[in-house]
Structures are given as C-alpha cells and as structure tokens.
Amino acid sequence: MKSVITALLTAATAFAFSANAATYKFVAANNLPGTQICVSAAKNDLIGYKDMAKRYGVRHKYIANNLTCNGEEIARFAAAYGATRTADYINRFHKGKVSIIDIAKAAQEKQQAAGEDQEVILVMVH
After folding, report:
1. Is residue 16 part of a domain?
2. Would 110 be classed as within a structural domain?
3. Cα distance between residue 40 and residue 71, in whole Å
4. Bridge-partner residues for 72, per DSSP?
5. Does some domain include residue 125?
6. Which 3 state secondary structure label does DSSP give 72?
7. N or C, which terminus of the chain has less Cβ within 10 Å?
8. Within a 10 A sphere around the Cβ of 98, how many other Cβ atoms?
9. Where is the secretion signal located (predicted)?
C-alpha cells in the first residue's frame, strides 16, 4: 500500500511540476560523484547520467537503491522536477516490492467504510 501511495504522489508531483512549466537550474553543492549523478538525473540528462555512472564505476542498481539526493531516492528526486526519462530509467533498477491484494475484498471493505451510496474507484499501479 505504501508503494502505491508513493507512486501516486510521485506521479501527482511530476504532473504538478510539468503543468507549471517551471524552469529549474541545478547547481552541485560539491564535486562528489553522488552529487554529480543527482544533478544529471534531475536535469533529465540520461546520457550524462549513464556516462557518470560508468566513469565512477557505479552500477545502476546500486545508484537506484542507495543514492539519495537532498534526502530523497534519486528516482523520486528526478521525477519531482519533471525528469521523467531519467526517473523511468533509474526505476528499472530499483528493488520492487510485491504485494498481493484481494481487490474484491478491498472494494467491499471500502464500500462498507464509505457507505453504500458512494462510488469506489480502485487504481491499480504496476
């Protein structure tokens, strides 16, 4: 459930930033490899991101699961600034969490909690 909420919030954040069409300038606070990789990811510079990972000898799986940018996972950080190309690429290497939900039971429980006259919309995120 947490991953579903996270995915929805990330999508909403990405949509909100793209709807505003704001322009961001990313400035590295230092010259550490992790910071440089974060800047490339946030700029949606997929070629630069891959080049830096190769130059520093860091696997994409390690970056996706261990690198944080300003306190956020790198893919979420990139998506928050509309860098969907790099965020999608990084998410391919992220460890996923699998959860099985009985949709019929969940819908029934939501209807009981909400009342019989309200419509329940289930959103499945893969």
Report:
1. yes
2. no
3. 16
4. 69
5. no
6. strand
7. C
8. 5
9. 1-21
What's the rounded Cα separation, in Å, for the pair 111 and 73?
35
Q: Closest by alpha carbon to 86, among 66, 106, 109, 63?
A: 63
Tokens of 91: 């998410």
Query: Which regions in the chain score pLDDT beneath 70?
Result: 1-22, 97-104, 106-108, 110-126
Q: Which alpha helices (H) appear in 1-126, and where do they start and end?
A: 2-20, 33-42, 46-56, 60-66, 74-80, 84-91, 103-114
pLDDT attached to residue 124: 35
- 70 token code pair: 């300003």
SS3 95: coil
Taken in order 53, 58, 60, 65, the sign of the CA dihedral is negative
Q: 107 in a domain, yes or no? A: no
Number of separate domains in the chain? 1
Q: Taking a C-beta distance cutoff of 8 angstroms, is the pair 42, 24 a contact?
A: yes
Q: To the nearest 10°, the Cα dihedral for 7, 10, 12, 16?
A: -170
- Residue 98 β-bridge partners: none
pLDDT value at residue 28: 85
